[in-house]
Amino acid sequence: MKLARYASVAARSRGRRYPEPPAPTRTAFQRDRDRIVHSTAFRRLVYKTQVFLNHEGDLFRTRLTHSLEVAQLARSIGRALALNEDLVEAIALAHDLGHTPFGHAGQDTLNECMKDHGGFEHNLQSLRVVDTLEQRYPQYDGLNLCFETREGILKHCSHANAERIEAVEPGGVAHRFLARTQPGLEAQLCNLADEIAYNAHDIDDGVRSGLITLQDVARVELFERYRNEALREYPGLEGRRLLYEAIRRMLSAQVYDVIDTTGAALESVAPLDADAVRQAPPLVAFSDPMRARSSELKRFLFDNLYRHPQVLQTTGAAQQIVRDLFACYSSVPEQMQSDYAERVESGDGPRAVADYIAGMTDRFAAHEHERLTGQKVLA
Ligand code: MG
User: Fold this and answer.
1) 47 C-alpha vs ligand 1 centroid, how far in Å?
2) Does pLDDT of 292 surpass 80?
3) Is the pTM of this model over 0.90?
């Protein structure tokens, strides 16, 4: 398919940190996607929490299925806008690689443990995974991905961390946080697709878990509008089929809204190429009314699902596990895998411990905690 002139083009990539000859049958972005799919961190996503801990049920989203849903949504929007679908897929599949076990509870606790050592940010950690922590190639650490893929993976970054990255990679992936410019369209798109995906699947998982009901969600305009629409077309529809039909219609409406709004913005700004996009205001967006409705849904999920007493209870256990692991490994580094223990010896202490914990799956972290403390804090 012919790409739009403002799409990223693999042959014009700003390249890899360690130059490599092109692959005979794949573009540079297809190759990035393949490297991500074959990485260790990618396989671990299946055992990492999205909202519900992995062991709470087999049907809930995990970081892996979430990432696949983000990739699906982003690719279908990207294709409609003639953006680079391969790059979109690579960024979407990699966007959560840096997540700790136990979702946001794990991340926030690790950030607290690291507060005197530069903190912990999951977006930055995703970049660390693909840049240094994966060890698969003889010539270099990391996956040696293209600039554009790495730019999309680093979707947020504090000013202090941006300055740190800029010092070692001048004009690189962190530059935009200092210069206040935008990333390419494919990166902007993955960011929005992430929000569309979790809003929708968290309603589904929330209702399946019984923590929220269809009646609760009916208070949210974005959902209720499409539930009513489904009922008008299929009177008598109920239960899971009604839930799925409402979510399906809601997802489609958001996808078309992004395509129309972004298409109109691209027409009016008319960037000449992918670099002109970086100097323009953000271009991938919802319309104002859809932005308001999506934010309302986000707030609803925050108040009613993410802060539900039952979710908060496992959050407390997750915090304890991460805090205890951090303390144990910091005092006895030999309890970690040897390459991490060696990093502590060579002066990279707290960061090595944080990298080790961040890479864990939920169940490995829980097993390690039990092994080291003798306590079982997760049923
Ligand atoms: Mg995500």
Assistant:
1) 15
2) yes
3) yes
